[in-house]
Here is the input.
Amino acid sequence: MSQDILVLGDRKFSSRLLVGTARYPNNELMLNALTESGTQLVTLSIRRIDINAAQEEGGILDLVSDAFTLLPNTAGCYTAKDAIFTAQLSREALGTNLIKLEVIGDDKTLLPDSEELLRAARELVADGFDVMPYCNDDPILCMKLADAGCIAVMPLGSPIGSGAGIRNPYNFRIIRERIQIPIIVDAGIGTASEAAFAMELGCDGVLLNSAISGANDPIRMARAFKNGVLAGRDAYLAGRIPMQFHATPSSPTQGLVSSGSSHSK
Here is the structure.
């Protein structure tokens, strides 16, 4: 059987779990958690790190760039203009055209600004970027982002850092039906069962950060997420039985021995 591969543009990954690098108490724990998760693609905020310091020996880029593919993001941007500028800085500094596009609407909800996001996505695609936009779980928006040339969409399960899981699975099912590019659920996943559920809905991957870095035991939680994503993907590919109102016996009823049957000696 061929290996189950996640394809993002011209890049291929055997792991469908994407992990962030923020909020760990130290870099050693971060590296151990990333390794235990099995991830191959890690994200980091360009606006929130000192690029020069990060590239020095022992800096975060020095530690992760050899072992993992970097997915820089535009976290902290509130306009298309700022996000485009940040993406261009990222490409110049890191030598990658891969970008996780974030354009936030306000400080209170941290929800995406769909209008600015779509504008930025179109301009970055035209500029040669491989764009993976963090967006609302809006099927119409996801269709427009796919039409704009994004290599994946990253709808939120629930607000960033909430740990509330996927609040609207019906929208995810619609998105899966309507677009062909990968769907990676981003934000709100709190535990491994929620990651498995996302994969069972047909998502192609899961991105998370604080669910691991904020856990009591980040290493164990990283392993749990690795296994949850694998189990959910297998369940989706296997195809669950239909849900129905009445019971259906799991054992055949034909040929049962009745209480009145006679037996020869």
